[in-house]
Amino acid sequence: MTERNDLGLTATGASGGGCSCCSPSSTSGAAATPSAVTAEVMVSGMTCSHCVASVTEELGEVPGVEGIDVDLNAGGLSRVTIRSAEPIDDAAITAAIEEAGYAREDVRS
């Protein structure tokens, strides 16, 4: 009898199918850390996990950023939450998003 290894993989998406690259589900970019400051920005143009990885990588290079969570809304506005111990320069956040190839959107209530 062959021993099976549980890889801990689970289905994603509303129907439980599809790959993690294409399903419009929430994706965490970095491990959660206790941070004093949280900033939320909206980003347009992201459609898959590669997009999330690109934005997460660029934002992770901004000094002071401790964690990033992305709530991917494929083809719409995705919510990006940035955690830090101190406030992060708004221009640095915008520059990182643009460097990744996406646009930061202002959302007014």
Quick description:
InterPro entries: Heavy-metal-associated_CS, HMA_dom, HMA_dom_sf. With 109 residues, the protein is α+β, with helices and mostly antiparallel strands.
Describe this protein with a few key phrases.
single chain, 109 residues, alpha+beta, five-stranded antiparallel sheet, 2 helices, 27% strand
Protein described:
Keywords: Metal-binding. It comes from Microbacterium thalli. The chain has 109 residues and is α+β, with helices and mostly antiparallel strands. 20% of the residues lie in helices and 27% in strands. A five-stranded antiparallel beta sheet has the order 1-3-4-2-5. A hairpin with a 5-residue loop joins strand 3 (65-71) and strand 4. The chain starts with 25 loop residues before the first strand and ends with a strand. The model is unreliable at 9-33 (pLDDT under 50).
Count of helical stretches = 2
Largest sheet data: 5 strands, antiparallel
Beta strand count: 5
Helix content: 10-25%
What is the rounded Rg?
16 Å
Q: Residue-averaged pLDDT, rounded? A: 79
Question: Which structural class matches the secondary elements?
Answer: alpha+beta
Oligomer: single chain
Which strand-content bin applies to the residues? 25-35%
Strand order in the sheet with the most strands: 1-3-4-2-5
State the distance separating the first and last CA atoms: 61 Å
Indicate the low-confidence ranges by residue numbers. 9-33
Shape: globular
Domain HMA: 37-105
Organism: Microbacterium thalli
Protein name: Cation transporter
Keywords: Metal-binding
